[in-house]
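Acetyl-coenzyme A carboxylase carboxyl transferase subunit alpha
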Amino acid sequence: MSGKVLEFERPIVELETKIRELKDLSGAGSEMADEIARLEQKAAELQRERFAALTPWEQLQLAKHPDRPYTLDYIGEILTEFVELKGDRAFGDDPAIVGGIARLDGRSVVVLGQQKGRNTKENLHRNFGMARPEGYRKAQRLMKMADQFGLPLLCLIDTAGAYPGIGAEERGQAEAIATCLELMAGLRVPSISVVIGEGGSGGALAIGVTDRILMLEHAVYSVISPRGCASILWKDAEAERTAAEQLKMTAQDLVGLGICDEVVPEALGGAHRGLPATAAALHDALRRHYGELAALSVQDRLERRYAKFRRMGHVEMQA
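Predicted structure tokens:
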């Protein structure tokens, strides 16, 4: 764990530190039990109040928190018997996207998602979760396998965007993403994507054309990163905060816009402060949505998926 504390978390962390110090001083005795219980209740109330009123900028900071659970963390909590499959069978493997076969409540599923690193070495290996073309072609291979064997597809989204390097562009980054979009639109199996952290630009959308789109409570999803938006619109990357406010990128905003189907609650204080509770809530949501999708015919699912994405971006012109 990095131990990073965001500015709006600081009063809560300071209170929790005081509680730990009191517990250490009191030892096994009960003379300070009432005071400790009072402070614990105060800390919980402070967390609920503060996290119920986060600004989009603060939501973005939470979504990018270095201690936030990543794809492999959720796979370990929600799925069993995970077998990772590597390589695109054309160029190589891209560790920025992980995927394979696993079981959800005993049923086989295909899972894939972007994976970030916890330290400098891991981030260099994972390329900070920014996939290259071979990563998206690996994703295509897994999608086709899911369709061939009739296995539900689960995509976990967590990336600042697709890698924009020269090598990636030379190997067809745009084509790889476009092919993912085309392929996912026609999959015959039930598919769900979950934004677990950052959902940035085409790199996120490439694995997000699914029957249902879920978002964790403090995740973000946008057509461009706030920093990129600020650089383009205002020629000033420091205007990132303003861009975050304008992009309507929070889970609550996107439910209102009809893009996100459900907001999955996180543990009090964010997923990085309670992976088991967050994973349990996500598990329940996945079980429910897969059950609903399984009850539909293939044709019905395809038609609903098509209609879902056709509705996005609708603009009504006023006279």
